[in-house]
Amino acid sequence: MAEPSARPGSGHSPSGPVRGPQGNPYGTPPTSYPQTGNGYAPIGAPVPPTPPPQGKNVVRSSLLMGAGSLVSRVTGFGRTVVISAAIGAGLLGNSYTTAQYFPQMIYELVLGGVFASIIMPLFVKAHKNDPDGGDAFAQRLLTLATLVLGAAAILVTLCAPLISVLMANPAQRDLVTQFSYYMLPALLLYGLFAILSGVLNSREHFGAPMWVPIINNLVVITVGAVFYTVFTRDAVPDANGDIFNSADQVTNGMIVLLGAGTTAGVVIQVVCLAPALRRAGFHWRLRFDFRSLPLRTIGHLAAWTLLFVAANQIAVMAVIKVANLATDTDSDVFVPGVTVYNNAYLMMMMAHGIVAVSVITALMPRMTRAADDRRWPELADHLSSGIRLASFLLVPIAAAFVALHEPIALMIFQWGAYEPEQAVATGQVLLMAGLVLLPFSISQLQIYAFYAQTDTRTVAMFNLPVIAFRIGGYLLAFAFLPAQWVVVGLFASNGVSYLVSLLLSMSLLRKRIGLLDMKKTANGLIRTTSAAVIAGAAAYGGWVLWPELPVDGAMAKLGQFASSIVLGLVLLGVYFAACLVFRVTETASLQATVRAKLRR
């Protein structure tokens, strides 16, 4: 649930840091460590030329990564649906979801943001410049990461009861602690997967890192299916008609299957990289000569990233804690907690990932080149066009989340132990996610305009008040809203913080690179939003007039699918028709693209 990790640049010249008097980057005698594998070409050693990328290979790699990303997102969401159906959104579901965040959060703090932003470029540099193709550099870094992450995994696993106190409510603490004993060791595995993926990507082997996580998703889907077959299908409800909503209904076998099964998926994910590493010609052996690593450079570049990541993880801990505390009530009404929050958040992030991340990926090389040459009007133009394109595609999705939140949530989540009232509550949070989606995506696009300038300090600094706003909103939601509306309030707090981030980043960018062509951008947003309001009103009207659906059974599920699909198509049709009437520029571009494809 954290924000996407920062992607800072080095702030150094392309040739690397200033070399010391002995011809190495750290000023120490050259005999103190081997002269290969430090990420920089040794003095006097010829560097083999890097062949230019072949067009067909680039296209093939892009298609492979795009397909892998899409399938990974779909199976990842399927994993969430299956697990939710197996364990529900009560005590068991909330405890499992809370424990699952621990290794991912700590991984982000220890290595995640630093790796994605800094270490990956060093892998590429080492592979390009070192006579051994970067093998020694990667072996040293893998050895160091294994020691650091292994020690961190042991330490946090021993501290599982303390972590549970920080993030769970009293009724959950024992379950969260037991799950954590199985899940926290995965911290080491997440780190190894990230670094091994970096080794492969630096050697232009992109397929395995994109496709292997699908195997992890399939493993956890299998675990959820087995859990449902063994435990959920024949579970006896309690006096309130709920299953898995009290500690007495949860057995050790359930905890072992869910906890160990989830970690097993990460183990298999790492192991499945081995064939690809062999094909890439990389063989890992332990190396302890860590002085050859540019640790000072990594530390210098990582400082602001760690500040940004740490602040985000504090916000994640806060939202999980508040969501769990909201469920600590004796109310007979279902109170949504961290599972409902997480499911709605994942739907928002899936839309953002498919649309906005694709736009960001396409724009980053152009924005970076413009920033490197200090062509500020061109950078502003790329940013403006990216915001308009992403908004054009995201606005109808947001409208669907708002207008059709109930049928969509019932269709996707009302399975097995995920009861109708839990799905309806998820839909209410999904409505808020629809309102939050666009500010979040635009704020992320603007943040990447700073990354194009290799500026992480500014991003870290202006995000500190943003995160303070967010956590303050969490506390206000918990203090003043009824328990069943707290999770909706948490999403509203996210939305306010994203809006603050958007305004702050816009102001800072305008001072740095000049006018952002916001008049044209605002004009496009007004037109697309107006079209989405009309389309959403039409779809919502259709839902109001839709025949009453049964609460449960095959006919209920059929009606949920029919209403969501039919009304969703109505929404899209009305949206594009309204965009044509309002002369939205992106609609004409889309028409031209479709016509060109059809002529082929």
From TrEMBL:
<feature type="transmembrane region" description="Helical">
    <location>
        <begin position="251"/>
        <end position="277"/>
    </location>
</feature>
<dbReference type="GO" id="GO:0015648">
    <property type="term" value="F:lipid-linked peptidoglycan transporter activity"/>
</dbReference>
<feature type="transmembrane region" description="Helical">
    <location>
        <begin position="298"/>
        <end position="323"/>
    </location>
</feature>
<keyword id="KW-0472">Membrane</keyword>
<keyword id="KW-1003">Cell membrane</keyword>
<feature type="compositionally biased region" description="Pro residues">
    <location>
        <begin position="45"/>
        <end position="54"/>
    </location>
</feature>
<dbReference type="GO" id="GO:0009252">
    <property type="term" value="P:peptidoglycan biosynthetic process"/>
</dbReference>
<dbReference type="Pfam" id="PF03023">
    <property type="entry name" value="MurJ"/>
</dbReference>
<dbReference type="GO" id="GO:0005886">
    <property type="term" value="C:plasma membrane"/>
</dbReference>
<feature type="transmembrane region" description="Helical">
    <location>
        <begin position="70"/>
        <end position="93"/>
    </location>
</feature>
<feature type="transmembrane region" description="Helical">
    <location>
        <begin position="105"/>
        <end position="124"/>
    </location>
</feature>
<keyword id="KW-1133">Transmembrane helix</keyword>
<feature type="transmembrane region" description="Helical">
    <location>
        <begin position="343"/>
        <end position="364"/>
    </location>
</feature>
<dbReference type="GO" id="GO:0034204">
    <property type="term" value="P:lipid translocation"/>
</dbReference>
<feature type="region of interest" description="Disordered">
    <location>
        <begin position="1"/>
        <end position="57"/>
    </location>
</feature>
<feature type="transmembrane region" description="Helical">
    <location>
        <begin position="211"/>
        <end position="231"/>
    </location>
</feature>
<feature type="transmembrane region" description="Helical">
    <location>
        <begin position="385"/>
        <end position="405"/>
    </location>
</feature>
<dbReference type="GO" id="GO:0008360">
    <property type="term" value="P:regulation of cell shape"/>
</dbReference>
<keyword id="KW-0573">Peptidoglycan synthesis</keyword>
<keyword id="KW-0812">Transmembrane</keyword>
<feature type="transmembrane region" description="Helical">
    <location>
        <begin position="525"/>
        <end position="546"/>
    </location>
</feature>
<feature type="transmembrane region" description="Helical">
    <location>
        <begin position="458"/>
        <end position="479"/>
    </location>
</feature>
<dbReference type="InterPro" id="IPR004268">
    <property type="entry name" value="MurJ"/>
</dbReference>
<feature type="transmembrane region" description="Helical">
    <location>
        <begin position="485"/>
        <end position="504"/>
    </location>
</feature>
<keyword id="KW-0133">Cell shape</keyword>
<feature type="transmembrane region" description="Helical">
    <location>
        <begin position="558"/>
        <end position="582"/>
    </location>
</feature>
<protein>
    <submittedName>
        <fullName>Murein biosynthesis integral membrane protein MurJ</fullName>
    </submittedName>
</protein>
<feature type="transmembrane region" description="Helical">
    <location>
        <begin position="179"/>
        <end position="199"/>
    </location>
</feature>
<feature type="transmembrane region" description="Helical">
    <location>
        <begin position="144"/>
        <end position="167"/>
    </location>
</feature>
<dbReference type="InterPro" id="IPR051050">
    <property type="entry name" value="Lipid_II_flippase_MurJ/MviN"/>
</dbReference>
<feature type="transmembrane region" description="Helical">
    <location>
        <begin position="425"/>
        <end position="451"/>
    </location>
</feature>
